C-alpha cells in the first residue's frame, strides 16, 4: 500500500477516493492551506512577493507552470488567490516553513529584506541542496553574501535595470541610425560611389555590397551604386571571395571620382584614412568599426562608427535587419564571411552582437560557396613571404620582429604575422616589408598588458598611418622622396631600425637594453 501526502483541503479526499487502487493518505493540515497542490514536488516556489516577485509570478504564469507563492502580507496573499495563484501566508525566515511545502525544483527568494533573504537561502540550501535558487540582493553588499551562502543566481534589481536601460537605448539608437540612413538614401538620385579601404578585405567588400543593396531599395533604383577600391586584392581568400560571388568592383580613378554624386566610406573612418582619397574630399556617409580621433562626425551627412563591434559587416547586417530588407544569398554569404574573417572565426574582437548577426545570416547563405572561399589555393609569392618571415625572425623578450623584404602582395604580411604569433615564447609579432610606395607593418599581439593598436598609432602615426585593435594592428609609412629608389630592400634595411626604435621605446624594450 503506497502512502501519499495531500496538501490542501479535506474535500479533495473524496475525489481521490474515487480512484480504483487502494491508497493510504497522510493529511498535512495547513493554516490557510495552498489549494490544488497535490504533488510532493513542484516546479517553482516564490518566497517574498513584492513588486519584483509579482513580475516574476506574471512571467511564470504565462508559461502555465506549477508554482506556489509565500508572503507574510495577508492582504497580498488574498489578492494573489483572487487572481487564481496558489499562495499562502508565511514568514520566509521561519526554518519550519519548508515542512509545509512541496520540494521545489527552482526557488526564487525575492523579499525586500536582506536578512530574510539570507535566512531563507540558508534553510533552502541546507534542506534541498539540489534546488536551483535565484535570490534578490537589496544592496551591493548582499550580492556577495548571497553568493557565499550558495545562491545560484543573484539579482541586484538596480543593476539589472541599468543594464536593460543601456541595452534598450543602444538598440533604439541603432534603429534610428538605420532609419536615418534609409531616409537619406531615399532622397538621393545619381551615382553613389562606395569606397572600400585600401587593399580591401571581405569585411570592407561585403559592407559595400550591403550598403549598395540598401541604397537601391531606399531610392527605388534611382541611385546607381558603384563599389570602388584602391591598392591590390592579393590575399588568395579575398580573390576567391570576389570571383566566386561575382562581385563587381572598379579601381578608383580621378575620372570615376568626378562622376560620383555622393561618396560613402565603408570600413574606413574618413578620407585619407586607409584610403588614398585627399583628406579634403567631401564624403557623405562613413560607416566603420575603427575609431579615428582626427576626423569629427561633422565631416559627413551620416556617420556611424562603433569601435566595440567586431566587423563593419555586423553594422550593415543590423541595418538590413532593422529595415526588414530581404537579403539575397550572395549578400548574406558575403556578410557572414566578412564577419567571420574580421573576427577570425569568432575568436578575435568578437561581441555578442556579432554572433547574433551571424546567426541571422547563416540560414540565408550558400554553404558550398563558403567552403570554396575558405579553401583557395595559395600563391607561390605568399609561401615565399611566409618563409622569409620565419627565416628572418628575431625574438627579444617576447617580441618578434621579422623583415620579409620587398613585397608585391601585402596581404601575405598578416598571414605571416598570424602564423608567427603562435610561436612558443612570442607575445607580440611585427612582420614588415617594403613595396614601391610604402613600408608596411602587420602586427599581432596576445600580451594583455598592451593595446597593440594604440601602441602602433603612437609609434608610427606621426610618420604614416597606423592603428587597430588590442590584438591586431597595422601601419603604413609612405616612402615619399625615396619611392623612386630601385633597391628597395637596401632602403628598408637602412631606415627600419630608427622606425622600429619608436615602437621599442614605447613598449619598454629600450629600458631592458640599458639594464
UniProtKB/TrEMBL annotation:
<dbReference type="Pfam" id="PF02272">
    <property type="entry name" value="DHHA1"/>
</dbReference>
<feature type="domain" description="RCK N-terminal">
    <location>
        <begin position="41"/>
        <end position="155"/>
    </location>
</feature>
<dbReference type="InterPro" id="IPR051319">
    <property type="entry name" value="Oligoribo/pAp-PDE_c-di-AMP_PDE"/>
</dbReference>
<dbReference type="InterPro" id="IPR038763">
    <property type="entry name" value="DHH_sf"/>
</dbReference>
<dbReference type="InterPro" id="IPR001667">
    <property type="entry name" value="DDH_dom"/>
</dbReference>
<dbReference type="GO" id="GO:0006813">
    <property type="term" value="P:potassium ion transport"/>
</dbReference>
<protein>
    <submittedName>
        <fullName>DHHA1 domain-containing protein</fullName>
    </submittedName>
</protein>
<dbReference type="InterPro" id="IPR003156">
    <property type="entry name" value="DHHA1_dom"/>
</dbReference>
<dbReference type="Pfam" id="PF02254">
    <property type="entry name" value="TrkA_N"/>
</dbReference>
<dbReference type="GO" id="GO:0003676">
    <property type="term" value="F:nucleic acid binding"/>
</dbReference>
<dbReference type="InterPro" id="IPR036291">
    <property type="entry name" value="NAD(P)-bd_dom_sf"/>
</dbReference>
<dbReference type="InterPro" id="IPR003148">
    <property type="entry name" value="RCK_N"/>
</dbReference>
<dbReference type="Pfam" id="PF01368">
    <property type="entry name" value="DHH"/>
</dbReference>
